[in-house]
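Margin note: ligand = copper (II) ion.
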Amino acid sequence: MAGIDKAAIGFSIAIVAIGVAFAMYGDAAQNQGYVATPTTSKPMAVIPEEPKAQTDPFADIADKVKENPKEVMKEVEEVVEEIGETIKEETEKHAPGPETYTVEMPAGTSVPGCEETNACYLPADIIIFAGDTVEWVNVDTAAHTVTGGSPADGPSGVFDSSLVMGGASYSFTFNDAGSYDYFCMVHPWMVGSVTVN
Ligand SMILES: [Cu+2]
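Resulting structure:
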């Protein structure tokens, strides 16, 4: 996709710019004596030694750029390519368009107990993308609801299945990103959430 390629190129430029900035900063710092290890014994100039400087992953990037800029460029390009591929794969994975995810209302949830294992809806917490649909299937014999909100705060008004009989189902399409808690009006120990990215 052209958008991805542009993004990858932009990202590549950004990473190279960061590398160059580090290289330049490294030079400037050395020229001006702003090195982490004090070079004089003046008490006022003593900078405490910190392990931080050694664990910084960018600590030696300036040296690497100076020693072998082509090698560093190659490494950067490889990383950028990998990132680009990953973005492309993830995008294409979702490219077919909106998807429908199934959540079950399991048998036996009309009596408390399922809340102990967060299993009153299965799965109780799901993550989807905006535009996707969740279909709740009631495989129980008792009727349940899928009501946006929480037992403590009550219905949010965003979605509400009203009673879903045993064997029936209810679907809702989430068009807006956000975090949506829901519960069963009949059995308030039944709670779940949908996170929409
Ligand atoms: Cu219920």
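Residues 13-22, 24-43 have pLDDT under 50 and may be disordered.
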